[in-house]
């Protein structure tokens, strides 16, 4: 190893070297390159291996590490991470062209590099994630980009559009001619998933249990609701229909526990999802992290007050006042207690809001616990409503779990901002026999494809 007087270093050997550079000031840079075709392992980046070389420099008093490699080789990793490598080749080709176009559109997007390795640009995890199929897709479309009026487009994409892609205005308020709503065949993400029952427990609590963990007893309540029975011990009842560490457990039950079925939904997935119900206090905590101005007082109502061309929420009112956020897509974080909402294509059910019909035909809307509510049974006996939940059946026999205090259940479709290419939609179109050119021109309106 040679350490030069100008503090640059040159090293090549058959064994690993520990390389230190300090202090790093001014415009000094260090380059590290492997001998031959070997890769470089970056320990502090999850031990990932990388093609090309590394440039070390100082930015704002901290060491900056930049991976320098041929552009097409960069795409080998991006496509392998951004789309499942087992998906049809034409879908992977569409992803390759979209990723190439997106990166070229951004140009030198950062102070010392074209891109970063996160979703701020596109996810890039180095050579260790590369796969034969994704590399084939990149090479088969080498140099091909999407153009609109002769310029490389910002080829935005997301996981699932939930059946309809978004207009650009629904995410960032600015209109883009080639980013318009189109129907998207995204339901393939539900293939093979189980359904979940939303159930009422003997304790009065409400949550979700997967369909294969219960059996139908053949019995019904006097109101006609199906009575289920759990078939396994130590079974978690979850807040929404998904098994993840981040999904709160409502209760744990044993085999033989009787449950009343409220409704049945598919497991939350990129096409259809459920979140909540959240309490007013929970939403107040997360909203005031992002809202400007902040919300004062308890939250008693949350409503979607404006929607965009595809039906996505673009404005929310809280307690009758517009929620101030930086952009429509920021609503995902502002309402995402415990994690961002999957998309802005959602409905909000105010679980504490109940319309009570009197004997004279007059109706009263009850949205909180400020006034007592009495329930009359079939024998004419009445009792004051108590407990966290109240079960309301409509004229069609559908059961609803209303909450005593203000609560908010959010259900929606899609995963991501929904603008541009839908990856699950691309999968479906490729599976139907469409090629990558058709897929790209379907999602990006008025574009042409050319080799740059």
From TrEMBL:
Pfam family, one: SpoIID
Positions of the Sporulation stage II protein D amidase enhancer LytB N-terminal domain: 60-146
InterPro entries linked to this entry: Bact_Sporulation_Assoc (IPR051922), SpoIID/LytB (IPR013486), SpoIID/LytB_N (IPR013693)
Source organism, top-level taxon: Bacteria
GO BP annotation list: sporulation resulting in formation of a cellular spore
GO CC annotations on file: outer membrane-bounded periplasmic space
Identification of the protein by name: Putative stage II sporulation protein SpoIID
Species in which this protein is naturally found: Paenibacillus agaridevorans
């Amino acid at each position: 190893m040679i350490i030069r007087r100008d503090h640059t270093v040159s090293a090549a050997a058959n064994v690993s070297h520990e390389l230190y550079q300090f202090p790093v000031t001014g415009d000094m840079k260090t380059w590290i390159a492997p001998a031959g075709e070997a890769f470089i392992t970056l320990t502090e980046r999850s031990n990932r291996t990388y093609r090309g070389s590394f440039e070390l420099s100082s930015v704002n008093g901290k060491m900056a590490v930049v991976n320098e490699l041929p552009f097409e080789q960069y795409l080998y990793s991006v496509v392998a991470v951004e789309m499942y490598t087992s998906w049809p080749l034409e879908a992977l080709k569409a992803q390759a062209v979209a990723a190439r176009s997106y990166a070229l559109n951004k140009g030198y997007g950062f102070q010392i590099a074209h891109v970063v390795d996160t979703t701020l640009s596109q996810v890039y995890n180095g050579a260790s994630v590369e796969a034969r199929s994704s590399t084939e897709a990149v090479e088969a479309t080498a140099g091909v980009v999407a153009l609109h009026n002769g310029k490389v487009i910002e080829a935005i994409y997301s996981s699932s559009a939930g059946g309809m892609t978004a207009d650009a205005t629904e995410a960032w308020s600015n209109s883009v001619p080639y980013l318009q709503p189109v129907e998207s065949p995204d339901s393939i993400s539900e293939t093979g998933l189980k359904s979940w029952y939303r159930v009422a427990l003997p304790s009065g609590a409400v949550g979700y249990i997967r369909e294969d963990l219960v059996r139908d007893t053949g019995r019904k309540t006097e109101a006609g609701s199906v009575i289920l029975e759990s078939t396994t011990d130590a079974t978690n009842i979850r807040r929404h229909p998904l098994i993840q560490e981040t999904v709160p457990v409502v209760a744990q039950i044993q085999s033989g526990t009787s449950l009343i079925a409220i409704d049945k939904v598919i497991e939350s997935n990129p096409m259809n999802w459920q979140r909540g119900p959240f309490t007013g206090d929970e939403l107040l905590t997360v909203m005031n992290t992002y809202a400007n101005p902040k919300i004062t007082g308890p939250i008693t109502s949350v409503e979607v007050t404006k929607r965009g061309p595809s039906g996505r929420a673009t404005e929310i009112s809280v307690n009758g006042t517009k929620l101030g956020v930086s952009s429509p897509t920021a609503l995902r974080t502002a309402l995402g207690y415990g994690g961002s909402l999957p998309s802005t294509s959602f409905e909000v059910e105010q679980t504490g809001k109940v319309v009570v019909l009197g004997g004279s035909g007059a109706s009263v809307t009850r949205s909180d616990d400020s006034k007592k509510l009495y329930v009359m049974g079939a024998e004419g006996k009445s009792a004051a409503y108590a407990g966290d939940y109240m079960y309301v059946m409509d004229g069609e026999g559908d059961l609803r779990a209303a909450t005593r205090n203000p609560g908010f259940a959010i259900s929606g479709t899609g995963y991501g901002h929904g603008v541009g290419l839908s990856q699950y939609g691309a999968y479906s179109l490729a599976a139907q026999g469409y090629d990558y050119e058709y897929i790209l021109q379907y999602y990006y309106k008025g574009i042409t494809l050319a080799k740059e």
